[in-house]
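Human:
If only I could read backbone structure tokens as easily as an amino acid sequence. I am handing you a single protein, as its sequence and its fold in token form. I hope you can help me see how the letters and the tokens relate. Thank you; the sequence and its tokens follow:
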Amino acid sequence: EYSRAGAAASWKNPDSGNSGKFTPTKTYKTNTGQDCRDYEQTIYVDGKEETALGRACRRSDGTWEIVS
């Protein structure tokens, strides 16, 4: 939530050996004032790399919801 755009955060699951990184690419407010972030995520499962783009926006209760 607090990482700057372009700053990747990495993770690794010690049980499965799977890993990945999450990089916020843009932070903005919608025309209704909702906080949103675009991101890129890359995961490595069984040595295979998968990359996806997405968007998450903050709900009124303060949690984040993936919207695309």
In short: The radius of gyration is 14 Å. The mean pLDDT is 93. Strands lie at 9-12, 19-29, 35-45, 48-58, 64-66. DSSP finds no helices and five strands in the chain.
